Every structure is written in C-alpha cells, then in structure tokens.
Amino acid sequence: MQLALVHTRYQLLEIIRIPVAVVGSAFFPAAAMLFFVVPFAGKDPVGATYATAAMVTFSVMSSNIFQYGIGVAEDRDQPWNPYTRTLPAGPAPRFAGRVLAGLVLTYLSLIPVVVIGATLTAAEISLAAFLLAAATVAVVAVPFTLMGLAIGYSLPSKAAIVVAQVVFFPLAFGGGLLSAPDEAPGFIEVIAPYLPTRGAVELMWAAVGDYPVRPLSLVMLVVWVVVLAALAGWAYRRDEGRRFS
Amino acid sequence: MILARAVQASRRYGDVLALDRVDVEVRAGELVGLLGPNGAGKSTLMNLFVGLRRPTSGRVELFDGDPRDPASRRQIGVTPQETGLPGTLRVGEVVDFVSAHYPAPIPRDELLDRFGLADQARRQTGGLSGGQRRRLAVALAFVGRPRLVLLDEPTTGLDVEARHTLWEAIRAFHADGGTVLLSSHYLEEVEALANRVVVIGHGRVLADDTVDAIRAVVGVRRVSLVADDLPALPGVVRAERVDGRTHLLTTDADQLVRDLVTAGVSFSGLEVRPTSLEEAFLAITAEQQEPSGTAGGDGTRTGRPGGSPVAPRPAGADGTPTTAATGGRPTTA
User: Fold this and answer.
1) Which residues, including other chains, have CB under 8 Å from residue B181's CB and lie 6 or more apart?
2) Where do the TM regions start and end (chain A) (predicted)?
3) Of A57, A90, B32, B116, which is least packed with CB atoms within 10 Å of its CB?
4) Chain B contacts of A80, Cβ < 8 Å?
5) Could you give all domains of chain B from N- to C-terminal order, each with its CATH number?
C-alpha cells in the first residue's frame, strides 16, 4: 500500500512537471461551460445546476479517457517501464498508483468547471449534495478509466491519441451531455441510454437534484463497466504476454 | 553458493532462436563478464535473469527462485537503459523512487556521491549529459544494497574517463563481496573487470573460462598470403583457402611469420589482421564440430594447438548455427 502511494506520488510529479498536460484536460469542459452553459442556462438555477453536473461528467470522461489512453500507451514505449518491472514489486503498486494519480487529476480538472458554475451561473447546491456529487465522480470515473486503459494497453501511442479523440466526442454528444435533461434532439434521446455517458450523467443529476435515474441507463452503465473491464483486462494481459513472456 | 543459474535455457522470438540451450551459473563473489558481439543473445539472457522474459524452454533461477517472482528480485540490482530515465523527474527523486522498493537502501547522498552525481541531485534527468545519465542508471542498480548486480552494457557510448569512474564503482562493489554479471561487447572492459568470462555467440555459450584463457583464444590473428604449397606449421588453429589466398588463424602471428620464412616457402601478399571475437570463436567451434570437413575449399589443415586452455562447447548437433538477429530488448530504444 505504501508503495502504491509512492508510485502515485511520482506519477503525479511526472505529470505536474508538464503543467500544460493538466491545463489541457481542464480546458475543454471549462470552455464548454463558458460558451454553452453560462449564456443559455445560466439564469435558471435548476437548469444551470444540471448543466454544470453534465459538464463535470464530460470532464471526468475526457480526462480519464485521455490520461489513461494516451498516458499508458506512451509509458509502454518507454524503457523505464520494463526497468520498473525488475524492481522487487509486482505490477499491483504501479497499477494502483496510476489509478490513484488519475483520480487526483480528475478532481483537479473539475475545479474550473465547478468554479465557473458557482460564480457565473445561478447553479446552486447544498453541501450534502455537493459531497454526494464528489463521491459520484469517483463512481462515474470507473467506466472511463477502464475505457482509457483498454485503449492504452491495446494500441501504440500514436494510434491511442487518435482513438481517444474519435471516441470521446460521440460519447459526449450521444449521451446528451451537451443538452438539458430530456431535451436533447430525438435521435439522441433514443441512443443515449445505451451509452455509458448517459448512465454516468444521470447519476450525477440524481446527486445534485431530484432527477429520477432511468433503469435502462443504469443497467447499460453496468454492462459497459463489465465489458470495458473485460476489454482492459484482456489488453493488459495480451500486452504482458507479448512483451514479457 | 549459486546466485543465478540458467539450465538449458532457450528463448525464441518467432522464427529467431535468440538463446539456444544455454547453461550459465553465477556464484557468490564472482565478477562474470558476458562477452559477445551485438545480437549474440547477451541482452536476452540478462532479461531472463531479471524476470523480464520467460525462457521458451529450460529453466532460469535467481536466488533459487523464479526471477519473475518479485521476492526473488529483492537482492538484485539492475540498470535501466539510460534513455529510459523519466525526463521530468529530478535525479534525487529517481533515486528515492527506486529506494522505496528496498528495505535498507543506501542513503541518497552517499549513492550520488559515489557516482559523482552529488551536484546534480536537483536537476531533472532530461537535462543531464549522456555520461551523467549513464552514471545515474548504473547507480540505480546499487541503491538496494544488492548481493547480485546485473549490468547490461553499462559503459556503451561513454568516454574513457566516465568509463573508468564506473569501473571503479563496480570494482569497489565486488571488493566488498558483491557479485556482478556484466555484459559487454568490449573485450577490454571484460578484461579490466571480470575474473571469469562467458562468451556468447549466435545464442550459444561458446566458452566459459578465466579471462586469461579466453584472451589466449581471442588473441587469434589471421595471417593470409598467396602460396602454392605450405608445409605443416606449428601454432595454426585453422587454415583455409579462399579465392587463391590461404588464410591461417594463429595465436602467435609473429612466430608463424618467422616459421614461414625459415621454412623457405615462397609466398606473396602477406597480411596480418586481428580477428573479431566472433570470428575467432566461430572458427574454433566450427572446427570442433566437423573435424574432417573443410569450410572453405582445399585448405591445408592442422590441428588445434596443443593444450589450449579453452574448451569450446560443440555447436548444435545439426551443425548450422541459428542466427540471433535481435538483442531481445522488450522495447525499442
């Protein structure tokens, strides 16, 4: 456990030494807040709160898909990675360190969204709901962490960058993250429940307001987690088998 | 006590046989040099010993355990490729990170001081010179107070001074009772450090002996000349005739030339060239494996010099050495 924290610390150090990387993952959701939420839903407390929650979900998704998808793929290219495997520790501490560091960065990337939501819109939230939402973020991060790991462990870094970018936009739109609850265009309402982003954002909405989570979205979210976990596990083992057998 | 052992270990990458039934033992207190040309299988053998790869067949042991079990690696030290240091981390941080994996690591300042990096502790590794990075990479192998250190080409690309600094550190570790397995394609480096040499070529152990014994064989020279008929000459390891020139491999070129002259043979176009390690060893193993055949035409053949201290292993039973084209690094540098 202590080793896991050591790995977390150094993973964070490596990332924070290149501040642009941290700024990058926080930029897009913050910009989307400024351009779409503040002018359109800023005045209505309920709408602004839901919209902020949707942007938080968006941010969780993008930062996890990118930092794991690209980060893992790049690490696999580095000779430092096999060297760490010769140290007297199994793969668990490094893996745990990566996930913990990812969670820390996810929360960091949320700060601008939350600050904009609190200061420039009418969004309001009780302390209890805020804490509940903060905990929900960790839950919602699970499918996207797994998706990032699946991408990172199965593809070379150049391909991983492309796939991460191709995947994240349809997920955001298709899941209805850029529209108010149940006001998305018709076809999105049809496909949204089948995307992991929908179940995730519904959980966030339920945490910040009294949005009734639809069973279909929740079931599909669980299905996604199972499928992505299997995919990530398969990609990890295949990579280990190919490079270290 | 045997700290590391390979028993009939083979490793195949697709169609390429990088290691072919290798037997090597490293005993406590030894400083063993693993010598061979690039692509001979040195790195692959190192990777088997440190648990990065598994043998395709055969067995590899580290402290009587499987190298892939983290507990077996507690008493070894390994050096990363210098290009593999995380560029944004400071020197001191890299040392601390590796230290955290060991129960009683050497204090950071003491280690950096020993490798001449004390002034660089706060610099990011990306900003170090090539020599400094290499020293840091080697220093990391010693952080955990290992009993066995495995160094894969530790001084490749270093200038003379940096190389000698590293040699000193390796000698000091050995003098304190440490065990070292060091791979190199420089004979000079192995001569300077090791007391035992394992020569690897084409994935096989070609020789395993003292430095002196190996030097006697590696010191083989190629004397080539044009002559119609040569008498039997002492000290010729191997002879062959290619395109009208006769090539003689000998451990003592000076004496051979004297013998040629005193024998009164008429010859022309005399050349004396050093042979490469690989050439010397392959010549000798080829002779062992087909005692009556000739490799290159109608050459005169004399026996091996009597009492050669090295007993090279016979090559594969099929007689055709398989080429190992890859060094077996898990990643591209």
Assistant:
1) B4, B26, B32, B34, B46, B49, B148, B149, B150, B151
2) 20-41, 47-66, 99-121, 127-152, 159-180, 216-236
3) A90
4) 80, 84-86
5) 2-216 (3.40.50.300), 221-274 (no CATH)
CA A185 vs CA A173, A190, A191, A206, A214: distances in Å: 10, 9, 11, 21, 18
Give this complex's ipTM.
Answer: 0.82
Q: Which of A86, A239, A242 to mutate to test the interface with B (most CBs of B within 10 A)?
A: A86
Integer Cα distance of A197 and B289 in angstroms: 68
HSE-up of residue A35 (Cα within 13 Å, Cβ side): 7
The residue ranges of every structural domain in chain A are 2-244
What DSSP line would sit under B145-212, residue for residue? --SEEEEESTTTT--HHHHHHHHHHHHHHHHTT-EEEEEES-HHHHHHH-SEEEEEETTEEEEEEEHH
Give me the DSSP letters along B87-135: TTSBHHHHHHHHHTTSSSPPPHHHHHHHTT-GGGTTSBGGGS-HHHHHH
> Per mean pLDDT, which range of A140-154, B74-88, B172-186, B271-285 is the poorest?
B271-285
Residue B22 forms beta bridges with which residues?
B9
Residue A40 confidence class, pLDDT cut points 50, 70, 90: confident
State whether B331 and A82 contact (CB < 8 Å): yes
The verdict on B53 touching A (C-beta cutoff 8 Å) is yes
On the question of pLDDT at B2 being above 60, the answer is yes
